[in-house]
Amino acid sequence: MQFQFKIIPSDSIGIVVPLVKKMSKASITEDLLLDRFREMVTQNYECVGVYQGDLLIGVSGLWYSTRHYSGRSVELDHVFIEDAFRNNGLGTQFINWIQTYVKSKGCQAIELNAYIDNEPSQKFYERDAYKRLGYHYVKQI
Question: Considering Cα of 85, then 91, then 96, then 98, what sign does the dihedral take?
């Protein structure tokens, strides 16, 4: 299968909402997700898509920042590939593409969070030399 990886233009960000909704643990409406994505693209955020032809089958958000412990970095967010396209090497191709892309933008590190109950995801990243540094906590206020 032939896949393409490309940055999704900010004015087309709404196309990612159905995929992100599928992976979301929270009960967030598509309208609220769209509002949030429209705000996110005004910040240090990009989104990359995985396409098979014209069909969007995967996404990952890219949050850029400089951190005291890792330097210029990107945090992967809402990494998702449709079930039918998993377990065939596409995830590795996607992460490799992202790594090359963000390195060309001056990033020195890639960071991410994985859901505690998503063991396949954790194993995937650990096979690719990602190291566990701690826990990510959230408190709604």
Answer: positive
